[in-house]
Amino acid sequence: MPKEPKEPIVLTDDDVVAAPPALIRVGLETLPAAIAAAGARTSERFIEFFTANIRNRNTRMAYALAVRQFFDWCEQRSLLLEAIRPTTVAAYIEQLGAGMAKPSVKQHLAAIRQLFDYLVTGGILPSNPAGAVRGPKYVVKRGKTPVLSADQARQLLDSIDVTELSGLRDRALIGVMVYSFARVSAAATLRVEDYFEHGKRAWLRLHEKGGKRHEVPCHHNLAAYLDAWIDAAGIAADKKGTLFRAIRKGNKLTENPMAREDVLAMIKRRAKAAALPYSTCCAVTHFARPASRLTCKTAAHSSMPSRSRPTNHLAPPSCMIAPRTRFRSTKSSGFGFDIRGAVAGIGCDGLSVG
Q1: Is residue 130 part of a domain?
Q2: Residue 224 is part of which domain span?
Q3: Which pTM value belongs to this model?
Q4: Which of 168, 54, 176 lies closest to 115 in space, CA to CA?
C-alpha cells in the first residue's frame, strides 16, 4: 500500500513550510521560542539558513542539532533573541566544554556563529553576538582513529557469508571503503554508473564532500566483489540507481539507498560476527583519513602534492598528521604510492606494515 503523505510542519504562524528531514531528525520541527517571538521576517531568515544556505545534508543535520540545543538552553533562561550577548554565548560554550569533546564544542560554536552571521546579513540583528567568542584550542599532532590492520581486514572480509544477497552487498561495500580510501558517505551514495571500465581496468567514481568528484582504480579483488554483487542483485542495467541498496527481511532487495547509520550498524554486526574489536567499525568507516595520512607521512621519497592526490587530499597539510602505526610506501606510475589496495596482506603491493 502506498504511504500516506505526512502533514506539513508549521514553522511560522503565517506560512506552512515542510521542514527538511535533517531538521526533523534532530527535533527541530518547530521554530525555537526566541526565533518565533522575533517575528515572521526573523523566522523566514532562520528557515532559509538551513534550507537555502546549507546544501550538505550532514552539515545541515549537525548544525540543526547544535542550534536546537543552544536555543533550548536560552529558552530555559527566558532569553529572547535581542537579549543574547557575547557573554551569553560564551557562558553556553563554557558549559558545553564541561561535558563535550573540544571538536564538538568548536562545531557547536561554528553553527551558532554562522546562524547569527546569516541573521546579521539579512538585517535581523545589528551584530553577531557569537563573533567575538573564542572556542577551545585543539591541535592534532597524532591521529586517534584506529587503523585497520591487514589481518583484520582479511578476517572481516572472509567472515562474510556470501551465499546470501546481503553478504555479497556487505562484502562489496566494505571492500569499497577498504580498497579505495572512500568515506562512508561517498561509498553509500555510489550509483551503478559510478563503477565503470576505463581501458582494461575497473574504476570507481566517488562523489566526495564539497561537490568534489574523485576517480580511483579498483583493485582486482574489489572488482570481483562488485561484479558478484551487481550480478546477483540484477542491477547492472539500472545505471542511475543506487549501487548499495537496502535489503528487507527475506533477502528482498529494495530501491532505497543505505543510510550512513545503516552502514555503521552493518559493520558493527559484521565485526562482532568476525570476533573483531569494537574499534573495527571506526577503522573501516574512517579508513580514508588515517590510512592515507600514515602513508603520506612516511613516503619521504614522494613529493607532498603527489602524496595527497590519490586519497583526494587537496590540502598538503592534511597529509602531515603523525601516524599511530608505521607504514612504508612504494612508488607506482602516476601516484606517489601504490593505491591498488588499502593494507598489506589483502592484495596491496604498495603499503606494508612496519
Answers
A1: no
A2: 150-353
A3: 0.65
A4: 54
